[in-house]
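User: Run a structure prediction on this.
Assistant: Running it now.
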Amino acid sequence: MQQPARQKRSRLSPAAWLPGRSGSSPPPGVEADTARHRFVVCGDNALALRLVDELTVRHGAEVIVILPSRAQSQGPNLAAVPGVRIVEASRLTAAAFTEAGLAEATALALVSQDDAGNVDAALLAEEIRPGLRIVLRMFNQSLATGVRALLSDCAVLSESAIAAPGFVAAALGEGTPTHLRVAGRTLVVTRRGEVPAEDVVRGLAITAPTGNDGTAEADEPELLPEDDSTADLVLADVPVAAPVHRRRRRHPLYTMSVFVGRRLRVVLAVVLTLLVVGAVLFRQIDNLSWPEAFYVTILTSLGSADPDTSLSWAEQFVQTVLAVLSVALIPVLTAAVVEGAVRARLAMASGGPVEPMRDHLVVVGLGNIGTRVITALHELGLDVVAVDHREQARGIQVARDLGIPVIVGDATQEGVLRAAWVQTSRALVVLTTDDVRNLEAALLGRAIAGQLRVVLRLFDGDFATRIERAFGLATSRSVSYLAAPTFAAAMMGRAVLDTIPVRRRVLLVAELPVGADSPLEGRLASEVNRPHETRLLALRTGRGAQTLWSPHQGRQLVRTDRVIVVCTRTGLGRLVARCSPAPESATRGGVTALNLDEFPPTHAFRMPGQPPDPASNPNPEPEPEDS
């Protein structure tokens, strides 16, 4: 099938086009309305870089970044983004906010990993600019609740809560159905062949394009193709039963296996064999019963026997052999028992596996994303072994509380992965913050276990593409890439209901109001759809009183409608502009006013293969992020 030509993303500076600048025009792919927004982003980590890219390239906004130094961490990369202005400040003070132009900003994002610093900065920003839209990256639940109560317009998001389901789905396999809840309806992301054709709501992507020879090509997936029927990954409305994963049941003697190591088992086998052979010989020579034969054998072997020259030569020979062997075996047996006890104590203290494991998942890296992943896999009833080189890692205690075996060690060492029984596992999930270390652990796992399923956390998309081509490690995800669109939408006051990872790309399920006098008001519902960008799923009418699924394409959109769409990151940026009110009806004091309270950003955390609970809180409290 011939692939449509992909458009290259424009890296033009948003500052190159500003309202009132003579002879200027908006960059390609950037709508005029969104190019007017000014956002302030505080942070110099990976999420800050992805967020700035979203706001500038996807939404065409003007962005000012406040960071400690443009020469450290992600500072050089942020400074290299066209049109981004950098304000260097060691602390977020009133002077720094003033220099960044907070008084004219549409929204502020605080995405550093310092909870206390984020709270302090949010309170200061509220004093400087009351009612300012503030988006925080937070991980302390009690702090998150308190911040929401203190600030008038605040969204608290968890990067790991957004990204974790994508890693879980990748670990379980691309064919594992993923459930998501949209407007009170549970939908499932699955393969077209797994559901009846009449239950397909929308085609999402072509993930396995074929060439002229009919063979599959290793290429990026084609998202939201023009012809829905060509998509092999679909969104369906069907009650797909969640797969039941049952954790391996332990044998009643499992606790004893902790104490009985391989050497002790060998010694015990030799001793038992010796006793059986001795009993058989005594029974044949003296015509003893089996109890009498074992009685004589055990006493002779373990306690020795007095010499008796009146015995036959056969009896004397057997007694002599048993006595000699017992002298050698008793110390060996004692040493093996002591070794088993020490081994068991060390194993229990470290929390690592104490017996061979099979068909489990090995998760390397127990930061916040790793913590969420092991928790999700455990809740699905799967066996997990967790690995991290830091004893103080956030997920160590969580894993031990859940009864998950934990190994504290460097996953780039063969002995550590073998101790986790990666050679018999179903998947290796590597989630540290170091791309090179992740790759090294993945290649080592492949070397040990052959065609092992490997899921990598990689920040650099180009690096991930080269890795896929060179080593065949095609399953990789980026936490910041998955989370950044939700943070960007929250800054613009729009609701991203959920995300759908498709390999290293992502689709967004979003809900946007049709603004008064917006370009979309009065248009037909069919005009919401744009190939490779946006697909209309449903309409909320009458201020949300009714939801129309798959609405008639000839229906006219009115200002009380809200569109629910599945879209790409670029498609969301363009749709936001088309839904935004006209300048004369939405501008106050030179700053475009968004209806920020109408749709607070939410992200329901759900697991692959596990339908969301309709009664559950749609905006769960965030938890700590990775350091």
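The mean pLDDT is 76.
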